[in-house]
Hints:
Elements: H1 15-39, H2 46-71
Amino acid sequence: MLKIVPDPPHNPHSLEDTLIQATEYALCALTVAHHAVQLKPKSPAAVLMMASMHEMESLRVLLEAALIQVQVPAQAPTLH
Length: 80
C-alpha cells in the first residue's frame, strides 16, 4: 500500500536550534573581542576590534529577532 502523505524529511536540527546556536556563537565572539579590547585598549587593532564588536552585536540582535519570529506561533484567524 502506498502512503498518501510522505514522511517529513529527517532533519536533526530545526531552524530554531540553528538560530539558537548561531546566537550563542555570536555572543561568544562578541565576548572574546570585548576582552581583547580590555587587554590592549591602546592597541592600533583596538579600533578594528571595536568595529567587529559593533557588527557582531548587530548580528546578535538580528538572530534574536529571527528566533522570536520562529518561536511565535502563527496567529489563528479570529472567529466572529
